[in-house]
Design goal:
The protein has 15 helices and 11 strands. It is elongated. It has 459 residues and is of the alpha+beta class. The protein starts with a strand and ends with a helix. Strands 6, 7, 8, 9 and 10 form a 5-stranded antiparallel β-sheet that branches. The protein has a 4-stranded antiparallel β-sheet with strand order 1-2-4-3.
Length: 459
């Protein structure tokens, strides 16, 4: 009869030894040999009529080894289930194991040892006591008017005047890398673009007035554009936005077309084009509706920022110990490609953080009965489709949407990704009910800086 013993060999790290006797594997070995005899196709013998001795001689050793190892695996799995062991990954065979000890001609007791990493018990960070802030960006008249102008331009008509007359002209241009004297650099960068006159720096704009198609101006990027626009131009030209050497390069700017957008008028046609699902008659109704939408967008960003803070609160203030030596050995040996110790040492901090977050998500989900249901998956598939269609789905397309959702939940990759995202969203929704953030008004500019500082910190 098989025996299983377990001993601790480190922090959350146990050794499990499985010993099997002849009675554990011989019956299945003999049965497997008979099955081989029925199926074996050997020249000179009719199928199923090959002598047992020949079958044993040809296949015996490999079948014997397979059955011994299968019985070991069965006992190991049964033990872990009965003991309700919560382990990381799969048990790792220890180097002391040697399958060469298995010999069909001298069946005996065999022992195989495995190393397991145990999942730790831990206490979650105390969310109700976390010092967090929920920022509130109030929509100002300036922000509202900027958005109205952007929508008027987007819904306006493009005309092609002969010359540049002001900041609102749209220029189609070619950027041609050159030297300070305006000589084209051989094999230098040439890139087309389209930009408003007001995107150029104030010192450059006057020189553009009166220019027409095929005219050229020479400028240095660092002086031709202010910081925000310069970063965008540098990126479009293939440089890093903080590349100061690139910012000092000279470019000839060849005007290939002069355009001007006539802004759309504030009337019912315009309101309908912006909000097709709403009946808006007056300018006041339009402004109120637009203001609500802008406010909802900033509130969503504020909520996202709070969730980032909750994430760090949980990750940084939940203390979890790991079976580090086991996990490092598993990283080294358990994947498709073996890793070196140096690779494991480099990757382990990020790996352990991801593992920590997975354990936190699982604990919150189990303790609060957070589940991902079939309807959640279907709704996510529909939302995905709506985003592709830019939210434009008519009532008669609803059955088609249902068919799409039903197809998507048969897609293994979609389901795995969707389950992870939905579960994470539900965990954050739960976490938001636990925290008591301080409400703090903040300007749009301050909030943007806060977001940029956070992104910079995490890169």
């Amino acid at each position: 009869m098989a025996t299983v013993t377990r001993e601790n060999i480190g922090l959350l790290n146990d050794k499990i030894t499985v010993k099997v006797e002849k009675t554990d594997y011989l019956p299945s070995f003999e049965k497997a040999l008979k099955e081989y005899g029925k199926k074996a196709n050997i020249p000179g013998f009719r199928k199923g009529m090959v002598p047992a001795g020949l079958i044993k001689k040809m296949y015996g050793n490999s079948v014997f080894t397979d059955e011994v190892l299968r019985s070991v695996e069965k006992e190991l799995t049964s033990y872990m289930q009965n003991e309700k062991l919560e382990i990381f990954a799969q048990p790792l065979p220890l180097p002391e194991n040697d399958a060469r000890q298995i010999d069909m001609n001298t069946p005996s007791e065999y022992a195989f040892a495995f190393e397991v990493g145990l999942k730790p018990d831990f206490t979650l960070a105390n969310l109700p006591h976390a010092k967090l802030t929920r920022y509130k960006v109030a929509v100002t008249d300036e922000m509202l008017n900027e958005e109205i102008e952007r929508l008027q331009i987007r819904n306006g008509k493009m005309t092609e005047p002969e010359t540049v007359a002001g900041d609102d002209n749209v220029l189609s241009v070619d950027f041609i890398e050159s030297d300070e004297a305006g000589n084209t650099i051989e094999n230098g960068i040439v890139k087309d673009n389209s930009l408003l006159v007001k995107y150029f720096s104030e010192s450059v704009r006057p020189s553009l007035i009166g220019k027409k198609k095929d005219d050229v101006i020479l400028l240095q990027l660092s002086k031709g554009f202010d910081e925000k626009e310069r970063e965008w131009i540098l990126n479009d030209l293939g440089f890093a936005k903080e590349d100061t050497a690139a910012a000092d390069k000279y470019f000839k700017v060849l005007i290939t077309k002069v355009g001007l957008i006539e802004k759309a008028e504030l009337n019912e046609d315009f309101y309908k084009s912006v909000f097709p699902a709403k009946e808006i008659k007056t300018e006041e109704e339009f402004k109120n509706t637009l203001k609500e939408e802008i406010q909802a967008q900033w509130d969503a960003q504020s909520r996202s920022q709070l969730q980032h803070a909750i994430y760090h609160e949980l990750l940084d203030h939940t203390n979890i110990e790991f079976p580090e030596s086991f996990l490092k050995r598993w990283m080294q040996e358990g994947g498709e490609q073996p890793k070196t110790q140096e690779q494991v040492a480099t990757e382990f901090p990020e790996f352990s953080n991801q593992l920590k977050w997975t354990l936190i998500i699982d604990k919150i989900s189990q303790e609060n009965k957070i589940e991902v249901k079939a309807d959640d998956l279907k709704n996510m598939a529909k939302q995905q489709l709506l985003s592709y269609m830019q939210g434009q789905i008519s009532d008669d397309q609803q059955p088609w949407m249902d068919d799409y959702a039903n197809r998507m939940i048969q897609d293994k990759r979609f389901v795995e990704d969707a389950v992870h995202r939905i579960q994470s969203n539900k965990v954050f929704e739960w976490a938001e009910t636990q925290v008591k953030p301080e409400e703090k008004p903040i300007s749009r500019e301050e909030f943007i800086k806060l977001q940029e500082a956070h992104q910079h910190h995490h890169h």
